[in-house]
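User: Hi! I have a protein structure encoded as tokens and I'd like to know what sequence might fold into it. I'm fairly new to this, so please keep things simple.
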């Protein structure tokens, strides 16, 4: 200690000519405090001349001598790595260290303190700093020579204040991420203290300037040298067995960059994202040299945030205009509701936006015309499976202290429920074709005209207002409702994309431009369904005008598209199933080249067209007991194969096979939808299963055969159909479009607000996370009652037939030739109009 103090005194005497006398006289006073903060050779206004540097022994460098001195005093610090090799930066730090104006004893007290600290207290702070706050070396944002001059200046001010134990500097260092426990259990994503960093704002006594904190979430992609077995095993644990592979070039706003390290750094606001990236990259290169590990660093400007960043950068005149628009719309809804509440003789147009009227409409359990009851339950089942699958993907954004353990839990075959999300959307496409065809053919059979322009306008009136409202909300409102480390990535970034490409969504062509540049990526299904709806009249006309040749033509088209799905998946090595070890790049390519394109999804839509034609054309068809038995066995076996067949692909040790992926992509949509198509067809005809399961099937070894036999038992089939036909599912059908629209914004809202690692447990995180699910359904109800149901009312009034009786008269109208629904009861209503089943079939 004495050696270092004497060295600093000598340095002060050497610099007296270049520094003011006061600064030079304070050097001995600073020595005791600086001993524990800065290395040997840092104490003057300019770099230490070579003549004053200790002469290193032969074969040793100056740095080794400095480290030896530090080791002798029990203070092993890698300050050479902290300050870097840039002498210019060291000069700046030395300059500010010695020019501590109006401060005694080398310690700058907080601005609100007037008294001078005693020598004992200064010693306490010195000890506290060296033993607590200096356990982890502060990050030097000016480590690189290429950083901006402002970054160098503010970094020097930070280190000067840190050396003096100023509270704001200690908080800045404290807010940065530190290496913690559980690294081998995947605890590698550290978010630091987001709010503490952004709250830093300090006026400096030297120049009167203000330093603010900037929170940067750096992304680091580590790689190891090939042929290193031990390193490979360690990194396999650190990166959670590579459950979802990613790199820095992958878009991270829709699917997480799971294998990328996220590390928080709190730096002075004068340092930009580019400065931090350069300094961190060069520091890691020096730090991990000769370790067999290489790193690539990226610091995105959107992930370098300051306090009120969103308000200063994103609140524009357009934002203000949208807010006023929502306010005016709310006033319109309030006025309509008040009119509905206070008026007896109501004008129907004035109650269109009434909350009272629209809430009653949504919660009504009354059967609609030509209502296919069991479709509601099937929709609900697939919607909930999708909700769980999407929630699982959203959870992968969050940091976990036991992420490796999480991967091991989820690397098992039973996780098929979350990995097979793609096939859960296919029933909605099939039912879209089914209900459109059923409605059209019913009208054609009764001699009614199908006015396509009314159908198209009616569909647009249903889907455009909720979609437009959600885009405006997510673009101009949601970014201002929260903050967090990933907020700009998963919330604000979607708004930026929507500002550029919202028009594609309004034209329903956004699914052709890829996930990366798609406004609200989860709305791709809106484009697929709308495009198929616009070409559906051609399919329906074929089977109506030429039933046999039309059916053959549709079957041929379905076969061609199935073969194309197989080919494109095999040749491009795509993955429609989220197998263990898949990559973000592979998932995006699957979406861009197959999943979001209607040509590859038309197979199940054609199944729906054929199902709708059969249900409408062959109402009196009689099926024998043997036909029913075979139908149920085949359909239940098909759904078992579709669901359980790819289960091994979720295993921890699965290796990608393009043949497996191609077979799954080609045939699983058909197999999954076949069960639901058979259930609707038989129940619509009024059948209940009368057959007993054959014992020879039960004796088969294969699990899927046993499952098919179990599921196809008559009592279970009847209970299943009755469950799907429960009247309460009519409510979930009415809000299903809104559930599809709102779930991802809500998931990402919570991801963006996450500030610290969590402990992963499957049941509490996935199944029993009722708060998030309740919010999804409440938000869906609000979106439906405010933006969907009112325009359904407008559509009904616009296209009401002159000869169509009023609603009260329609309720009592009957039709002797009614059609049975899923409960086997005949339909006693007259006209065929769009009912609850013909709502847009979206939940994905």
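Assistant: Happy to help. Inverse folding works backwards from shape to sequence: for each of the 844 positions I chose a residue that suits the local structure. Here it is:
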């Amino acid at each position: 200690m004495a050696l270092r103090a004497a060295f600093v005194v000598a340095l002060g005497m050497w610099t007296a000519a270049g520094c003011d006398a006061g600064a030079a006289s304070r050097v001995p006073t600073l020595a005791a405090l600086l001993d524990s903060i800065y290395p040997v050779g840092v104490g003057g206004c300019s770099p230490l001349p070579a003549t004053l540097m200790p002469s290193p022994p032969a074969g040793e460098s100056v740095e080794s001598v400095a480290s030896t001195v530090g080791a002798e005093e029990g203070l092993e610090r890698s300050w050479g790595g902290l300050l870097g090799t840039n002498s210019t930066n060291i000069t700046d730090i030395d300059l500010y260290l010695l020019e501590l104006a109006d401060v005694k004893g080398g310690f700058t007290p907080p601005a609100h303190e007037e008294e001078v600290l005693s020598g004992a207290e200064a010693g306490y702070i010195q000890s506290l700093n060296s033993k607590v706050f200096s356990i982890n070396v502060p990050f030097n944002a000016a480590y690189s020579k290429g950083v901006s001059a402002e970054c160098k200046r503010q970094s020097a001010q930070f280190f000067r204040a840190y050396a003096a134990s100023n509270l704001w500097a200690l908080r800045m260092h404290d807010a940065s991420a530190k290496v913690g426990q559980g690294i081998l259990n995947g605890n590698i994503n550290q978010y630091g203290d987001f709010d503490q960093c952004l709250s830093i704002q300090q006026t400096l006594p030297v120049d009167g300037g203000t330093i603010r904190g900037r929170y940067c979430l750096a992304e680091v992609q580590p790689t190891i040298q090939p042929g290193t077995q031990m390193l490979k095993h360690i990194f396999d644990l650190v990166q959670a067995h590579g459950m979802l592979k990613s790199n820095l070039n992958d878009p991270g706003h829709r699917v997480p960059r799971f294998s990328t390290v996220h590390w928080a750094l709190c730096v002075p606001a004068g340092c930009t994202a580019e400065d931090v990236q350069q300094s961190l990259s060069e520091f890691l290169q020096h730090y991990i040299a000769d370790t067999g590990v290489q790193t690539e660093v990226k610091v995105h400007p959107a992930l370098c945030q300051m306090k009120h960043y969103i308000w200063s950068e994103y609140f524009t005149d357009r934002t203000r205009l949208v807010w006023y628009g929502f306010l005016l719309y709310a006033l319109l809804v309030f006025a309509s509701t008040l009119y509905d509440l206070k008026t007896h003789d109501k004008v129907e147009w004035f109650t269109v936006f009434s909350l009272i009227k629209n809430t009653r409409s949504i919660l009504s359990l009354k059967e609609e015309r030509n209502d296919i009851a069991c479709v509601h339950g099937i929709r609900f089942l697939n919607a909930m499976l999708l909700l769980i699958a999407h929630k699982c993907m959203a959870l992968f954004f969050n940091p976990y202290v036991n992420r490796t353990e999480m991967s091991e839990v989820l690397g098992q075959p039973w996780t098929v429920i979350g990995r097979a999300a793609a096939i859960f959307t296919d029933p909605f496409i099939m039912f879209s074709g089914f209900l459109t065809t059923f409605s059209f053919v019913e009208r054609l059979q009764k001699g009614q005209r199908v006015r396509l322009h009314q159908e198209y306008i009616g569909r647009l009136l249903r889907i455009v207002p909720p979609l437009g409202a959600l885009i405006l909300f997510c673009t101009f409102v949601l970014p201002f409702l929260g903050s967090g480390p990933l907020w700009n990535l998963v919330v604000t970034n979607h708004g930026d994309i929507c500002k550029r490409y919202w028009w594609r969504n309004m034209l329903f062509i956004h699914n052709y431009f890829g996930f990366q540049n798609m406004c609200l990526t989860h709305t791709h299904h809106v484009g697929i369904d709308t495009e198929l709806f616009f070409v559906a009249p051609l399919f329906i006309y074929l089977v109506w005008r030429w039933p046999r040749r039309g059916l053959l033509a549709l079957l041929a088209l379905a076969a061609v598209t199935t073969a194309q799905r197989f080919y494109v998946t095999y040749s491009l090595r795509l993955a429609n199933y989220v197998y263990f070890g898949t990559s973000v790049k592979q998932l995006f390519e699957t979406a861009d080249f197959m999943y979001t394109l209607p040509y590859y999804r038309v197979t199940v839509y054609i199944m729906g067209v054929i199902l709708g034609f059969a249900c409408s054309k062959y109402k009196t068809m009689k099926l024998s007991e043997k036909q029913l038995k075979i139908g149920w066995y085949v359909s239940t076996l098909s759904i078992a194969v579709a669901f359980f067949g790819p289960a091994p692909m979720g295993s921890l040790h699965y290796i990608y096979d393009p043949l497996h992926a191609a077979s799954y992509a080609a045939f699983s949509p058909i197999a999954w939808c076949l069960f639901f198509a058979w259930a609707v067809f038989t129940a619509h005809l009024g059948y209940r299963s009368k057959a007993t399961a054959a014992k020879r099937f039960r004796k088969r070894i294969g699990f899927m055969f046993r499952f098919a036999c179990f599921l196809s038992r008559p009592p279970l089939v009847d209970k299943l159909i009755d469950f799907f036909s429960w009247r309460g599912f009519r409510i979930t059908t009415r809000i299903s479009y809104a559930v599809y629209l709102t779930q991802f914004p809500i998931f990402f809202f919570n991801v963006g607000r996450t500030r610290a690692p969590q402990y992963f447990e499957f049941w509490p995180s996935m199944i029993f996370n009722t708060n998030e699910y309740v919010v999804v359904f409440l938000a869906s109800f609000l979106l439906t009652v405010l933006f969907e149901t009112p325009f359904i009312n407008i559509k009904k009034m616009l296209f009401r037939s002159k000869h169509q009786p009023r609603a009260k008269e329609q309720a009592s109208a009957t039709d002797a030739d009614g059609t049975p629904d899923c409960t086997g009861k005949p339909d006693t209503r007259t006209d065929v109009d769009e009912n609850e089943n013909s709502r847009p079939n979206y939940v994905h």
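A useful reference point when you look it over: Residues 166-307 form one domain. Feel free to ask if any position seems puzzling.
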